[in-house]
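New here. Invent one.

***
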Amino acid sequence: MPQMRVLLAIFLSLIFISCAEQPTEDAEDFSPVVDSPEEPEEEYSAINFSGLSSISHVTSITAQLNWTHVEGATAYLIYEHSGATPTIHRVVAAPASSSLIQDLTPETTYRFSVKLLDQYGLKDNNSSIEEFTTADTLCYMQTVLADAPVVFYRMDESTGTSANDLGSAGVLGDYLGGFLLEQVGGILTEPSLAVEFNGTDGHVDLGNPSELQITGDQTIALWVYPNALGVRQNPYAKAYGGEGTITIEPTGMIHYYYGTSGANAHPYQGFNTGAGRINAGEWSHIAIVRDLTNMQLNWYINGVLANSGAASYAAAVISSNSALIGQGYVNNFNGRINNLAVFDRALEDTEIQEHYDAATVGCP
């Protein structure tokens, strides 16, 4: 009997263990709950940014701030330090590495700094504060006047119908026909205004003063902004068979003519800008140099020599025609003109380049 009891107990124990190991249909699967480890935070690596590296293109009204772009930057904050507390002047999106500050006051000292912004926020990188002083407001004008123009029309009048001459001749011009004063000019380094002509009857009449009856060496330089091309138009004219005339062709090529007829007639020589072109809707500085001392003609566009060739006549012949801005023997000029200067000598390559640089970069 005791043995039977032991065997029965063992049998019942085995049945209990077997049933415990087999889940029933209604049994839930109770998997052990284990807390999943948190994703490791992205390791932050400090961005090394040193702030402003240089300040360039300082003119009377502009300055360019420069820095080195670094990976990870999303924007750069430019601060102006004009008082006890710096103020944000502007925000520049990465990957920019420079910003042109405009509308500054001539002959004024400014202080700027730049800081970096990344996905984590603003970095107080202790960037240094850089200081600069804007140039004299008359930089371009003084550069042109230093080369002694016979006439120099800034064409920056705000009222009236007279075009003032800053050259040695002092010849007043008369605005006639359709024109608009106080239009935006092309000089970047100083406040610049221009006159816009309507392309039909707008022009400036300079008369026929002896100072513009130039028969020898001559340079004509001006800034032009054609509203449209497609037709021949005259930004400046005296006589194409006389003292000289400039014609913009439909393609943007430019011709210069002078001659020995003393009128708009043969004989004359035409000389173009070669492959050089100007574009509608853009300011361009154009200059023709008639160097009859060396029997040479040179065309410049934006300070760069566009074409060079031999002159055909040792001297031009005086005409009775009035000198005109925006009008001539073909279509009237449609667009803006300013800073027209006429010299009674042949300017050098370096002088033409200095004029353009003074207008776009500033004076040294």
The two ends are 124 Å apart (CA to CA).
